[in-house]
Amino acid sequence: DSLLLRLAEATAALKRPEAVAARVALNKIERERLATGIKAAGLEVAQSGANFVWLPVGARAEVLNTHLARFGIASRCFAGEGVRITTGTATDTDAVLQALAQFRPND
Predict the structure, then answer these.
(1) Do 84 and 54 contact (CB within 8 A), yes or no?
(2) Rounded Cα distance, 104 and 26, in Å
(3) FRET partner for 48 with CA separation of 20 to 30 A, picked from 24, 27, 62, 81?
(4) Residue 43, C-beta contacts closer than 8 angstroms, at least 6 positions apart
(5) Nearest to 51, CA basis, from 30, 68, 70
(6) H helix or E strand, kind and range, residue 52
(7) Sequence-distant (≥ 6) Cβ neighbours of residue 16 within 8 angstroms
(8) Could you give the CA distance from residue 96 to residue 87 in angstroms, rounded to a whole number?
(9) What is the pLDDT of residues 79-100, one digit of tens each?
(10) Tens digits of per-residue pLDDT, 56-83?
């Protein structure tokens, strides 16, 4: 049922181009703010035009993923490669940046 509901919502959203444009604009703002904050935390972030950022942290991927989870942040870990964090609201970005401010990549 939830899949059908999401498909119906997605189809309805596509019929409202102004809503889609607003969501894309918000995503861009939060993605850029997230990337800037990640760099300020001393981590590398790949250039992105998607609804997520990629942190190529290599062997530290699992440690970072676990650290984020302690703060209630869901990220996608690619062991030995990096971590993917999906963009969200301003509140979501704030939470990620607060968690990253406490992450020590060289520990």
Answers:
(1) yes
(2) 29
(3) 62
(4) 55, 57, 100, 103, 105
(5) 30
(6) strand 52-55
(7) none
(8) 10
(9) 999 999 999 999 999 999 999 9
(10) 999 999 999 999 999 999 999 999 999 9
Dig out the tokens for 19 from the structure: 């809503």
Residue 28 to residue 79: CA distance in whole angstroms: 27
Instruction: Label residue 8 exposed, middle or buried (CB < 10 Å: 0-12, 13-18, 19+).
Output: exposed
> What 3-state DSSP class applies to 8?
helix
Strand pairing class (76-78; 52-55): unpaired
Enumerate the β-bridge partners of residue 23: none
User: Tokens 């300020």 map to which residue?
Assistant: 40
67 Cβ contact list (under 8 Å, min separation 6): 99, 102, 103
Cα(90)–Cα(76) distance, rounded to whole angstroms? 20
**Residue corresponding to tokens 């498909």:** 7
Q: Which amino acid is at 5?
A: L
Amino acid found at 90: A
